[in-house]
């Protein structure tokens, strides 16, 4: 999503002011969160650093995790792309070579050896990368509720990991094919596969909601939220995607509404 | 590896007696483990079931985990392929449709919704699938040493997860490209990438060995062992792969020797 351009129509959003994003997000709480967290302070060396890119759904997972745990982190914006001043926002969507990233963002590449967001660096020296592994690290490093994996329940913990991966590997991958393919017939196939995976996911959700596991949030909610945001708005904008109206998608809609109301999730909406 | 045929030369191994496998493995402990675990007993309904295929490196991870924890499990062999009696062993390497698997192996598909090995079913009703998630589940379900993720160490636990994924996503993927590509130039590129990823991995290993983290095994060792076995023998057989002789590959070689001596690992060598 972040690194390639969906062909056709127009360029992907270059800022959160872009018309691509829903109007209600222009003054979104995410922008306020960023402004507040970017403000340097003398105590910043003592804070956990979040290396992120504002548009990246993977990085947003780590961001939600820190917000949920109430961590006093500092926000470090990384532009992983070559800059071309001719383009709006300067974003070329061409990944900078790792050597260039290393020169531009030495702290970041020390925390993320392949130069990909998200990553976190703790003042104690800990460095962790890969979105779901950052979420689990934050859960264990800040060992208090809300817990992203239910403590002492090996089965539920396994299912949380399985369904978090399912979001990336099944739902997101099919959505990405729908977005990138130019052939209408292949788009239709990808859309069908995407809907089927969404239904499989919905059937694994608790029936007493609102969250995936029920009354408590978990890593699965954190894993899906940034992507569902893009399924709705990027999908609607580029592909006229309208979610079906059936019990599975109604369950997902009530899940989306519940998550959107949660401050830690809302604080990351840009 | 298991599901497609490397083009050229000959078919992949159809049994552990195949010449593809190293002669020392013909009488391997893995075969004895299987024979012992397959023997039905009146108490089998009370045992954890391991759904596996003897040739599958992903399934072997779950198998090692159960052996390491000393679990009294029963071994359930799944042939995920269409059978053609004309072919040696009957293996076509064509995945059966999920409906057929459901009819043939109802218990298995209940434990693994996409019909992929490995999966485990606990007599208490727990069902878990996906290799690394089974390993973590087994670690938490049998809450005693050896621990596959070091207890109470969020950073080390994160790194164990990160480097376990690295095995699958970087080392194994490049090896697979080397194996499947027919163009010698592309094979050379894939081999270079594979060696580079192996060196990156080796540099992340503890220097005081023998295991990835040092004196104690972890999920990383379990994640890599089945693949390293295939890098050595399948790679050697099909592609004349010889591991370089440098500090990184010597570290990996000493790791391989230490793991091969460990009973739980050795018990899965087929």
Structure overview:
The structure is a homodimer of 270-residue chains. Chain A is an alpha+beta fold and 270 residues long. Chain A folds into 2 domains: 23-141, Glutaredoxin (3-Layer(aba) Sandwich), CATH 3.40.30; 154-266, Glutathione S-transferase Yfyf (Class Pi), Chain A, domain 2. The first copy, chain A, has helices at residues 29-38, 57-68, 98-104, 106-111, 131-141, 154-180, 184-204, 219-239, 247-261, 263-266; strands spanning 49-52, 74-77, 81-83, 91-95, 119-121, 127-129. Chain A has a 4-stranded mixed beta sheet. In chain A, strands 3-4 form a two-stranded antiparallel sheet. In chain A, strand 1, helix 2 and strand 2 (74-77) form a beta-alpha-beta unit. In chain A, helix 2 packs parallel to helix 5 and helix 2 packs antiparallel against helix 8. The longest helix of chain A is centred in the middle third of the chain and has 27 residues, at 154-180. Chain A is globular, with a radius of gyration of 18 Å. The first copy, chain A, starts with 28 loop residues before the first helix and ends with a helix. The A-B interface holds A 113, 126, 128-130, 133-134, 136-137, 140-141, 154-155, 157-159, 161-162, 165, 200 and B 113, 126, 128-130, 133-134, 136-137, 140-141, 154-155, 157-159, 161-162, 165, 200.
């Amino acid at each position: 999503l972040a690194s390639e351009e969906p062909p056709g129509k127009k360029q992907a959003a270059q800022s959160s002011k872009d018309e691509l994003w829903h109007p209600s997000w222009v003054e979104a709480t995410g922008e306020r969160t960023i402004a507040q967290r970017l403000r340097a302070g003398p105590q910043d060396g003592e804070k956990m650093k979040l290396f992120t890119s504002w548009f990246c759904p993977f990085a947003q997972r780590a961001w939600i995790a820190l917000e949920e745990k109430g961590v006093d982190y500092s926000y470090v914006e990384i532009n992983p792309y070559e800059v071309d001043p001719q383009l709006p926002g300067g974003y070329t969507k061409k990944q900078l070579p790792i050597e260039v990233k290393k020169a531009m963002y030495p702290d970041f590449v020390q925390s993320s050896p392949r130069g990909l967001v998200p990553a976190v660096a703790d003042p104690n020296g800990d460095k962790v990368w890969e979105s779901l592994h950052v979420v689990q690290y934050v859960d264990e490093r800040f060992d208090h509720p809300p817990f992203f994996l239910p403590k002492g329940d090996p089965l539920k913990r396994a299912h949380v990991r399985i369904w978090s991966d399912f979001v990336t590997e099944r739902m997101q991958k099919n959505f990405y094919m729908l977005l990138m393919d130019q052939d209408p017939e292949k788009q239709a196939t990808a859309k069908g596969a995407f809907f089927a995976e969404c239904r499989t996911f919905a059937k694994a959700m608790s029936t007493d909601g609102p969250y995936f596991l029920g009354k408590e949030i978990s890593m699965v909610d954190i894993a899906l939220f940034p992507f569902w945001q893009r399924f709705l708005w990027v999908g609607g904008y580029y592909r006229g995607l309208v979610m079906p109206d059936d019990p599975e998608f109604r369950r997902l809609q009530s899940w989306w509404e519940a998550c959107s109301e949660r401050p830690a999730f809302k604080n990351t909406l840009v």
